[in-house]
What we know:
Blueprint: E1 6-11, E2 14-19, E3 25-31, E4 37-40, E5 43-46, E6 52-58, E7 62-67, E8 76-79, E9 88-105, E10 113-119, E11 126-128, E12 133-139, E13 142-150, E14 154-159, E15 168-174, E16 178-186
Parallel strand pairs: 3-9, 9-16
Antiparallel strand pairs: 1-2, 3-5, 4-6, 6-8, 7-9, 9-12, 10-13, 11-12, 13-15, 14-16
Amino acid sequence: GSTEPSRTVTVGVDSLEFTALYQPVISVSASAPSGGGTFTGTGQKLHSEFPLTVTAIPYNGYRFVRWLDAPDATAARVLDIDDIAGNRISLQAMFVRVCNVTVRPQPGQQQLGTVAITDNGGANFIFDPNTGAYSASVDAGTKISYEAIANPGCDFVHWSWDGSKNPVVTNMTIDNSRTFTAEFAERVKINCNVKL
């Protein structure tokens, strides 16, 4: 094999000239130091493939947070040839684990009591008026506070997930998807007649 840019090949009586066009190859790589995702658009690329989109794709249960070198860039990041120093670029993206959280009264006990989110930890809780539940997706490590409120003539019994009898929970660190269920009971009135 010749490495000359131009080569003449004779086939029968005809001479054909072939010219090789060389383009630098650029190595595009991406990684996630803390895990949580994968990427498309990486690998060995030719100049003619730019601009090129590299996309950070979170695994199930994670979300894309940011690129370490370009915090304002979106998950689908467009690279121009001017972004490349030398013949390689290595990108790093941050992903965070996401937990689904629900705070609710025991199903069927909405008439006995309610729950409230007293500190949402920056999350957007959605209230379901049919079940009395508050639900949100939060980043792992988020701290939330919530409480159980018994209706008149009823008492808070405990939280079903840990048996705690304290209706007020503060700074609960969310490290897994969870449902916090408040159990209530109706007070019973007992009439006693004493005969002497």
